[in-house]
Structure formats: C-alpha cells, structure tokens
Amino acid sequence: METLSSEKIWQILNEVKDPEIPVVSVVEMGLIRAVGKEGNNVIVTMTPTFIGCPALNVMQSEIEERLRQAGAENVTVRTVLSPAWTTDWMTAQAREKLKNFGLAPPPRHEGQLDLALLESAACPYCGSEDTTLKNSFGPTLCRAIYVCNSCRQPFEQFKPI
Amino acid sequence: MDMDQAEKQAFERYLLAMADDELILGHRNSEWCGHAPLLEEDIAFANIALDEIGHASTWYAILSEFTGKDPETHPDRLVYFRDASDFHSARLVELPNGDWAFSMLRQYLFDAYEMVKLRELERSRYLPLAGAAAKIRKEELYHYRHTSAWIKRLGLGTEESHRRLQNALAALWPYTRQLFTPVAGEDLVVSSGFGSPSEVVEIAWREQVVPLLEESGLQLGHLSNLVPDVSRYDGSRDQHTPHLKVLVTELQSVARLEPDSSW
Q: Core-most of A26, A132, A142, B34, by most CB within 10 Å?
C-alpha cells in the first residue's frame, strides 16, 4: 500500500465529526493541532473543547480507525491542553453550519472572555439579538439554552470559550 | 528540572489535593442527577459534575506524568484502587449534599476558590499545570456565573429560600477555612514557582465572595470569626469526615469487583 500523504490525512480527518454536533468536522472546529508522520505511522495532536467532554474519546477512536483503514500502520492520537482551545478557532464554514443546524455560533471574543459577553447570542432562526439566556448548561457541556424574544423560538448556543 | 525529594513530594500532595477535591465534589454533584428541584437545574448540576470530574482527571494525569507514571492508566488506579484514608480531599467537598441551598452555596464557594486559584496557577513555572489552569478557568467562568446568580436568587428570594441559604452559610463557612490551609510543604511548592501561597488565594477569594454574599442579603458578621471544630480536626488533609469513606466505597464498588475488566 502506498504511503499516506499529509493531504490525504487531513482529508480523512475532515470527515470525522463531533458526534454531539454531527455537522462540523474536527478540523473545522479547530480541534486538530498537528499531524505528524513517519513512514506509515501517524501522530495526530488534538485538543478538547471542554475537558470533560465525553465525545473526545469517540472522536479519537474514530480518527484511529479511519486512518488505519486508509493504510496507516500505527496511529497515535495525543491530547494537548495548551494553548487552550477557543471557539475563535472555528472556521467561518463551521459557524455557518452550526447556524443552519439551529445552534447559535459562539461570538468571537479575541481572548477577552468575560461574563457580559457570555450573555449575548443571536437567534439562529430569525437573527434577532433580543434573546434571553435560560440556562448556561444544556444537553452537552458546550451548549447553553436561550429563547428568542422576537420569534419566540427556544434555541441552543455553542458557548464561547 | 532539579528538585529534591521533599520538593517533589510537596508538589505531589499539592496536585493530589486539587484532584481529589474536584473528584469528590464532582461525585456529590452527580448525586443531584434525577433529583434536582427543576429540570434545568438537574441538567446544570449534571454538567457541572462532568466538568469537575474532567478537571480531576486532568490533575491526576498531570500528577501521573510528574511521578513518571502512565497518564492514561494511572489516574484510574488513583481513583478506583486507593483507600479513602489516602485521599487528600477537603472536608467541605465530602459533606453530603444537604438541601438545594446547601449544595448550591458549597458549589459557589468552591467555584470562587477555583477561579482565584486557577488565575494564580496560570503563572505556574510547571508548564503542564499552567496550561491546564488556563484551560479550566475558562470553563469555570460558566460555573461561577450560574452559581453566583443562584446565590442572589435564593438569598433575595422568599423567606424560606433566604433562611435555608443563611443556614447553609452557617454550616459551610467553617469548612472553607481548610481550603486555605497550606498542604504540608506548600512553602517548597511556592519557592519553586510551581504553585501559589494559600494566603494569596484566600485574600482574593474573600474579596470575591464576601461582597456577593452581602449583596444577597446574608449575614456574615459573626461567621467571619468562626473557626472549624479544632478539637476534632486539624487543617491538614489527612483527617476526613466519615462521609468520605461511604462515598469512596460506592464510587469504587464496581471497579473493585472486576479489577481487570476494561471499559
């Protein structure tokens, strides 16, 4: 079998989705920090969204499996915490996909994450910024629950972090 | 890294105390799952539990690497196969959940402690610790926002919610002292630049929590002078409440039945 090219590895990684947000890939989320290879041994370095996220192991197993199927002999998926992942690393496409999925994308914060910022979310359905936070915690660690005061639609937001 | 044996052991204790606090509090939080007074709060406490246990696993992994153990497998050894008497948790987090006000206030007091301590630890010279502190502090912002809002809501709410919160404060306040009692050898951890003095953390914590508690209509005056029941406990983390053993036994029961099984 021929050696896996870097391009091919990135392409495979781009097919791995976060099972809690099945519309965006780990690459679009900005979770893949580095890809290294030596012959057919591949080392993928990734970083978690929230540390306690139970989806992390699922994503790591899927990465290992897919790369092996594509011909990698040994696959190591390493986790790093620093620099800390930030929602600012999500690509523009990822934000658009989140919105179409009904999940308000996180506002950009350029590292200035303060409590006031955490209050704002634009409704992914009608675009109104007149929304009210109902719960900082939702069905997954990365989501908060809001209600839109304009179209009355409850919605979830990917929390800025 | 040149450290002598005493310095290494002190740093291990420092990390273990942090990890054990998060694990035990996370376990207590998880006990609210299915029992909280509102569905949203059931979800919130389950989320907070998951966060705290995730943070615990991070500290255990950092500790494992520091001691030359496998960071993938050693954390499970520490959690599931260590006797309760070897835990370094603070008694504050061991206490049973009590009522809603008690659990919420404990979580608030602990969140505030973590926020100020993590801010200090972001400057640790031990880079794995500094990196994890920066990461975890961002997550803790959400805890702090949630619990501080609830403290105001309960304190300024009904006569009953206020009374329950005030009672919780009287019960919990003496236990907070132990969070700021230096672990043995803390001076070595501080002089190596790896950790921060408890005293600094305590001052910052008080500046944060006292105004909020007062704003929430709580009476603090007589509490500020309260000290823990020193006749029963000292400030060290070697002595535990009887509740810890019950919790740890339950936590470990399945793993100890089949120690070699994989999940």
A: A142
